[in-house]
């Protein structure tokens, strides 16, 4: 580089296209918002440096010295199963509802006014955080698994309707046309063409949602009285102030979530191969 | 085992749904979910909502205070997503097969990211409460860690997808490591990165509400306060404000995505 005798005329490597300009403006906007955000933090007199040191020390306790005190190992497993059950139940319910509604939300399967109606409704459902759905239903059903299941099912259905409808819309238009031309009824088209071609996509979206619902179920245990391991974690943190017990619970959810992620990655790779 | 592949497939599907049904039944038992009450609660909740869960005049007077909390929460979601993505990009560059400085970097980079994203944001909040108490830091770092883990995962994939050919080409010209990264890999990945940052901002606003309930900060705390004091009309205004904010940010993200990608 230093061997250059005279400066070369600067060549614009990246021309200022609309896309590049948008990228730069977005980055600038995000940076400014971030810097501004730091000035508005409500620090409550907590010194960042000491708190960060304290955090590292806490991580050491949490991860290297976990142990159970207020509950037994069997209790921990049961709580984990409750949380997994909550995630599974809401995923299954959400998937069943979403499958039928997504058929009417897909542009190639239903009239456009119906698409827009369902897509608008689901956008609203998804915009409300799951915890608020759960607390909303808790007023009518009381705090507990009923409110948690309905609230989480609502949000899952909203998410899966969008995902399923997009999968349905990717189906080759020729296949649908051929079936229609041969006189197949609407339901025959759905079960002979739509479901078989999109099955792997539906399966992988549903599994993604199960992963989300497992973590949501932890959160609902901590905030909305859904029980399970989230509630135990909340008690260990806010009530017993027991970091080491919180560590044991953290390991339990970490191992399960990692196993789910591993399974999802391998399933995706297998589905991808069988498609080729 | 029948040799007919269609028959085999049918049996597989039936077995799959049978197992799923059994697991679902097991879940109903273990979570003590009352199916009948579940179905009847939905119409009850919505009929209650039409009379009680509507902002009244007193609630609208609280709007400025609620909006202030909302902006605080949005800013926290944006700053945590942005800073975590910047750090996440660096770690992803160290971990990706095409750009890692040495093969030994991959496993630690991916492993650390995996731990950070697989501990749920609510669990992070409960852990961080010990060090940061009821300050904005708790929520900020909870969102930061989860975003960081997620961004490393998706950016490792993106870098390996878009980077391979251009990295080889530049390496052949004798460009050094930093030049390759800054002139080829990062520009090629930026549109994807921005798209993921926007996605994480959307996600973080929803998570921030949850974290706020746990840590007593931001818009989540406002909701919790009104909800627990049974001031449902004010609580409904908080929900409304969140919905509007999320929808606006989603629309804005889509505009930016279309311009960038």
UniProtKB/TrEMBL annotation, chain A:
Pfam families from the UniProt entry: BPD_transp_1 (PF00528)
Membrane topology: Multi-pass membrane protein
GO cellular component: plasma membrane
Keyword presence, Transport: yes
Keyword list, A-Z: Cell membrane, Membrane, Transmembrane, Transmembrane helix, Transport
Transmembrane segments: 21-39, 79-106, 127-150, 186-205, 217-240, 246-265
The organism's place on the tree of life at top rank: Bacteria
Gene Ontology biological-process entries: transmembrane transport
Location relative to the cell: Cell membrane
Residue ranges annotated for the ABC transmembrane type-1 domain, each copy included: 80-264
Keyword check for Nucleus: no
Family the UniProt entry places it in: Belongs to the binding-protein-dependent transport system permease family.
Name of this chain's protein: Phosphonate ABC transporter permease
Classification of source organism: Bacteria, Bacillati, Chloroflexota, Chloroflexia, Chloroflexales
Automatic annotation (TrEMBL), chain B:
InterPro entries: MetI-like, MetI-like_sf, PhnE/PtxC
GO MF term list: ABC-type phosphonate transporter activity
Alphabetically ordered keywords of this record: Cell membrane, Membrane, Transmembrane, Transmembrane helix, Transport
UniProt key word Transport: yes
Gene3D superfamilies tied to this protein: MetI-like
Intracellular or extracellular location(s): Cell membrane
Membrane-spanning intervals of the chain: 12-30, 74-94, 115-133, 139-156, 177-201, 207-227, 234-256
GO cellular component, one term: plasma membrane
Pfam families with a match to the protein in the record: BPD_transp_1
Domain ABC transmembrane type-1: 70-253
Membrane topology: Multi-pass membrane protein
CDD domains for this protein: TM_PBP2 (cd06261)
Record family assignment: Belongs to the binding-protein-dependent transport system permease family.
UniProt name for this protein: Phosphonate ABC transporter, permease protein PhnE
Taxonomic placement: Bacteria, Bacillati, Chloroflexota, Chloroflexia, Chloroflexales
Encoding gene, per UniProt annotation: phnE
